């Protein structure tokens, strides 16, 4: 989002757990990324970081200030953590661990449940959220940025048939028109290829 909006920032690539130093733990005691440092102000939680940047820079298109439009964005951002976000800990991570021969019994079970896990979120996205963007807006908001990061990796790994969900599939196509999409996706493609989770590298 910062790239799309053209703000100056420095990306410090941090790979937990190996890059989690005592200095990093001072910024985020959870030892997780992302973390934002803005002068002497530090915060973590990806969705909260996006809304902070939008408020700070007055990006009303991605984080509307009108009461009900903002409430719809917030509704998604809270729902995200217990639904769409599970694509990482319950699908991507178990697949990586399985590939490395290090999956726990619980992760092996998650691999078996991949389709059910994803369907639980996509069903609700299809019925409620995508109208035509995630928070029922006419252009991408922080809700779309949060959600697409999860769905994009599932699409690249080809672990779910999104075509059964026309609104969601069309939304995913529209998100590919967001500026810098291909450049940003290239990094994800590369990572998933390295993990042997990219059956057919896509643009
Ligand atoms: N609720 C946090 C979750 C942060 C999180 O789980 N980050 C992952 C990367 S997407 C991480 O740092 N994983 C490293 C690890 O689990 O060791 C957020 O939305 O920012």
Features:
single chain; 203 residues; Glutathione S-transferase Yfyf (Class Pi), Chain A, domain 2; 56% helix; binds glutathione
Q: What can you tell me about this protein's structure?
A:
The protein is mainly alpha-helical. It folds into 2 domains: 56 residues, Glutaredoxin, CATH 3.40.30; 128 residues, Glutathione S-transferase Yfyf (Class Pi), Chain A, domain 2 (Up-down Bundle). The chain has 10 helices and 2 strands; from the N terminus they run ααββαααααααα. It has a two-stranded antiparallel sheet with strand order 1-2. Strand 1 and strand 2 form a beta hairpin. Helix 4 runs parallel beside helix 8 and helix 5 crosses helix 6. The model has no long low-confidence stretch (mean pLDDT 96). The chain binds glutathione (GSH). Glutathione (GSH) binds next to helix 3.
